Amino acid sequence: MDDRRHNETGGRFKYAFAALRIPNFRFYLTGQSVACTGIWMQVMALDWLVLELTGSPTAVGLTMAAQSLPVLFLGAAGGIVADRYSKRVVLIATQSACVVLNFAMASLSVSGHVRIQHVYVFAVALGMVFVVDNPARQVFTGEMVPMWCIRGAIALNSAVFHGSRLIGPIAAAMLIHTEGMGWVFAVSAACHLFSLLVLTLIRSGDPVTDQAAAAGPILVRSVLRDVVAEPRVVWTLFLVAVIGTFGLKFPVVLAAMADSTFDGGAQLYGLFNVALAAGSVVGAILGGRCARTRLRVVVVLAVVFGCTQAIAAVVPALEVFLIALIALGASNLAFQTVANSSLQVWTRPEVRGRVMGLYMLALIGGAPLGGPAVGWVCTLFGPRTGMVVCGVVPLAAAALVGASLHRPEPRWHSPRRERRRLFRSG
User: Fold this and answer.
1) Checking phi first, is residue 219 left (phi over 0); if not, alpha (psi -120 to 50) or beta?
2) Which of 2-16, 215-229, 377-391 has the lowest mean pLDDT?
3) Which residue ranges does the record assign to the Major facilitator superfamily (MFS) profile domain (predicted)?
């Protein structure tokens, strides 16, 4: 079966798990599952620590903004690193940095010297690591498998990332309740250390993009030319940017919903994250099943995401809200999986790392605007209103892209009319 046929059929359910046949990918996925559990423990602890120190949803939004600022200014540079160097070596360096940062935060928390300024510095440092880590990780995932099963590999990677959300928030909530905030960061550091050891043991399956390395200076503007020349890539990055800026503000709205709307604590916030994770696993697998790489599919999934979040915002009962969060997590990951894998299929291998850098810039770079804005709306008008905004804005963007896809060609640009005009003039 040729690559083209694999690309068309590789997303079906029977191909969704084909990447697991590759030993290196299985090995990598094991380390990734442990590291992602630590990431979600760290995310939960960081959000709740900010609320404990300040009592303000706006401060949670500012923390998100601090973590996203490096992506905003250096996102494309991370893609250059992913194209230029061995992804495995880059990931070893980033995991080492995560171990050091989490142990430092654990020491401050256990000793009782942690302040909000330390949290902001920690968030910025994590953002700088993320700038390099994520493009390399995205491309590394795709390079360990053949192109025909790349969508399934990305889906499995996303499923592991968000499936660990079923464990991480619960473990973090239990540790916060029994041992204190500092031990959450300590366990997170240990999880990153395990991932680091796994990466050092992988000796093959990490091809370097020789074309990119031999091409001389790798310029971002050369990739921008490729992006602009492909409308599907432009519109997909636009939708990713809008959803990343205004739609994915779960730490802000859910922390506020748990604290004020439903009068809960860290345990309820952890339960919200578990519900999102359960839906995210389903959404990632559904995204991996998608057999066709079409912009229309990306637009439809963006519409579903916006509608689901707007509906979840107005649900009155806690039980129904949890069900809505499962649906929200599913629609979110289905959109991200299809958007991510489509961009990798639509772009040349030698620039794929830089395109993934632009993807992460679109997904994360808008947080310095969206995080504080949504936190400000939650503070002034309540968490439900903030969550409605998080759904309506992506829905409007998807409607705009959908309208552009169905816009009829102007009559004066009709090829038949143009040929007739040239015939008459000649």
Assistant:
1) beta
2) 2-16
3) 184-426
State pLDDT tens for residues 214-230.
443 445 566 677 677 77
pLDDT band at 407 (very low <50, low <70, confident <90, very high): low
pTM, entire model = 0.70
Instruction: Please give the structure tokens belonging to residue 304.
Output: 């579903």
Query: Rounded to an integer, what distance in angstroms lies between the CA atom of residue 29 and that of residue 32?
Result: 5
Radius of gyration, CA atoms only, the chain: 22
Q: Which of 223-232, 305-314, 398-407 has the highest mean pLDDT?
A: 305-314
Superfamily of domain 15-407: MFS general substrate transporter like domains (1.20.1250.20)
Closest by CA position to 367, among listed 188, 242, 207: 242
Predicted pLDDT at 6 = 43
